[in-house]
Specification:
Distance between the termini: 17 Å
Shape: globular
Helix content: 40-55%
Low-confidence stretches: 1-6
Number of helices: 6
Radius of gyration: 16 Å
Order of helices and strands: HHHHEEHHEE
Oligomer: single chain
Mean pLDDT: 92
Number of strands: 4
Structural class: alpha+beta
Length: 163
Amino acid sequence: MSCGKQQGLGILARRKIEAEIIKPIYDILVRELGKARAQEMIGEAIEQAAVRAGQEFAAKEPQKANLRSFVELQYLWEKDNALDVQVIDSDGQQYNYDVTRCRYAEMYHEMGLGEIGHLLSCARDDKFIVGYAPDVELTRTTTIMSGERRCDFRYRVKAGSGK
């Protein structure tokens, strides 16, 4: 069993706390540097943090971090009914699912952070997997955060990679 079955805050609760801290920082950055530069800076910081988080989760895996162990961690992002998920395929080579309700998106919009919600949440996904299992890649073409009906997550082990 993977190390992921720990108690404590779910990711949704963590993201809310982080957003409460980031919001006033973002507001100051916008005032001082403009919206585009503020978003660039927040985005860069969040992406770096996501890679580090992936690496930290991978380091705790008793076996090598891979797509299967990643799937076992998904409950953390779904905790507190944060996501309504419809799994399409799940095996050692692919993990495909659609999110049909995203409380992350709802929360960021309610907090007045809808314009950077994609930076605070969505942009983390492909960076987390880079840190966690670099032989796995994420393709996503739609997100609820951007106003679409669903988020289409398509994780695949890269061609030429082992299981």
